[in-house]
Amino acid sequence: MTADLTRATAAELAARIANREVSAVEVAQAHLDRIGEVDGAVNAFLHVDTEGALNAARKVDEDIAAGAHVGPLAGVPIALKDVLTTEGVPTTVGSKILEGWIPPYDATVTRRLKEAGLVILGKTNMDEFAMGSSTENSAYGPTRNPWDTDRIPGGSGGGSAAALAAFEAPLSIGTDTGGSIRQPGAVTGTVGVKPTYGGVSRYGLVAFSSSLDQAGPCARTVLDAALLHEVIAGYDPMDSTSIDAPVPPVVAAAREGANGDLSGVRVGVVTQFSGEGYQPGVLRSFEAAVAQLKQLGAEVVEVSCPSFDYALPAYYLIAPSEASSNLARFDAMRYGIRVGDDGTRSAEEVMSLTREAGFGPEVKRRIMIGTYALSSGYYDAYYGSAQKVRTLISRDFDAAFATVDVLVSPTTPTTAFPIGERTNDPMAMYKADLCTIPANLAGNAAMSVPSGLSDEDGLPVGLQIMAPALQDHRMYRVAAAYEVARDAALGAPVISGVPQLAGVAR
Ligand code: GLN
Predict the structure, then answer these.
(1) Could you give the CA distance from residue 200 to residue 183 in angstroms, rounded to a whole number?
(2) CB within 6 Å of ligand 1 — which residues?
């Protein structure tokens, strides 16, 4: 019964709770029990809010018993990346500098989840300030990939993805600045969506790179991701970059796609994302996925986006530049820890000691790169050039979307790598996001859907689907159709292959 509840999809759980076949409290308890059993091995959670979750679940059960109308995900448990503020519940952003900080307010995403009756289980582990591709930059220890606990779960939202793959939660929220939803989704065999920039409010999302940061849904199925997307998306006057337009109809698109017909849909294969540095098993999985899209009736063509080759260097100037400015607010006065304030030191000295002790090495590296790139005399050469590349990338997308409906590529060049393999090689770590970064720079929608396991190492591979801004529904339709065909071909959902976690009875 309990295993049954933790393996169900969010859509199934919501239906069973609404029919009163099972209570929201039982569903929450089953997931809390599962977290208790396996999270010692996975470390997906930084904070589990047992009491808050059970109270929220009880409220949903009472509402249903009273005959109230509840939303399509009411009573379903969810895990939140620790970059979103939660009133009264710790928010660390994976950093020592915010240790012990209890936010006095909810992020808009948090508030919308609560209003829709979702049950927040807790906060998930992440690379410090969302800077990283492996969750090894967390100040609270790495998260482990449930497929192989000696490997990384991706990053920066490794905790949100691992929680899904370890059946600790059916849904989670991530944020994607350069790939932090999609890359963890790919390497854990789960679905991760970066909505159109401005599609989901950034209010209460601790800022890393404000022109790129975007929260989005993580789930084990395309429909579940779509249901969650519609709960969190939509205009918010509290975020000046929020788009005041109707939410793309992603749930309807996911349901339409599940019919398995993609005739009339034009799919472009990005030619830049293959060759050196790409694992052959990843490329074979991608080719098989493209063949399946053709079988579903899609028209497939190759599309060249030459500026994508410069996306990575442009991103690693723009993102650190914005971070160096955003992270100035951690000044030992307003939030979190304060070091060396013994009455003898100046405010400046206390700030400097606090930042020295509170920030980890990758965060310091980014602040230094960003400060340098923005400094007078270098601004045009670095930041200015990067912004020009950003425009060229947007133009490549515009040209591509003039002839195709969606673009596809592998989500990541490789499957999950061993913990420790890239920690001393920042460039190797940054390359995990080669394929995901262009969509952030242009602000359009992109997602990763599992495309099976690599024939080399048996680890999950992700198919990336990209769509124009505010056309998020296009990629959901393609992903949902592909998901049905993939499961039919493999004989079972990809996620059902997650091995038993060490020492844990399933
Ligand atoms: N891995 C990328 C980085 O380190 C992307 C991070 C993200 O999307 N938050 O910046």
Answers:
(1) 19
(2) 130-133, 156, 176-180, 208, 319, 433
What pLDDT, in 10s, does the model give residues 146-170? 999 999 999 999 999 999 999 999 9
Average pLDDT over every residue of 367-394: 95
Residue 359 lies in a domain: no
- The answer to whether residue 346 is catalytic is no
- Ligand 1: distance of its center to the CA of 309 in Å? 17
> 112: closest CA among 246, 224, 209, 204?
204
The catalytic residue among 133, 134, 172, 180 is 180
pTM, full prediction: 0.98
Rounded to 5 degrees, φ, ψ at 313 are -60, -35
Active site residue 81: yes
Whether residue 280 lies inside any domain: the answer is yes
Contact 49, 122 (CB under 8 A): yes
- Distance between start and end Cα atoms, the chain: 11
Token pair, residue 503, equals 């020492």
In what order do the strands lie in the sheet containing 406-410? 45-48, 119-124, 77-81, 171-175, 215-219, 191-194, 445-453, 460-467, 406-410, 266-270, 299-303
DSSP label of 329: G
318 belongs to a structural domain: no
Residue 459 φ/ψ region, left for φ over 0, alpha for ψ in the -120 to 50 degree band, beta for the rest: beta
**pLDDT band (50, 70, 90) for residue 500:** confident
pLDDT tens per residue, range 22-73:
999 999 999 999 999 999 999 999 999 999 999 999 999 999 999 999 999 9
CATH code, domain with 277: 3.90.1300.10
Name the residue at shortest CA distance from atom 5 of ligand 1.
178
Q: Which of 433, 434, 440, 448 has most ligand 1 atoms within 8 Å of its beta carbon, as the pocket-test mutant?
A: 433
The verdict on residue 26 lying in a domain is: no
Ligand 1 atom nearest to CA at 212: 8
Reported confidence tier of residue 461, pLDDT bands at 50, 70, 90: very high
Please give the pLDDT value at position 30.
98
And the tokens for 123? 């906060």
Q: Alpha-carbon distance 321 to 316, whole Å?
A: 8
| Position with higher pLDDT, 2 vs 281 | 281
Residue 426's domain comprises 41-50+72-309+390-501
User: Among 93, 126, 180, which is best to mutate for testing ligand 1, by the most ligand atoms less than 8 A from CB?
Assistant: 180
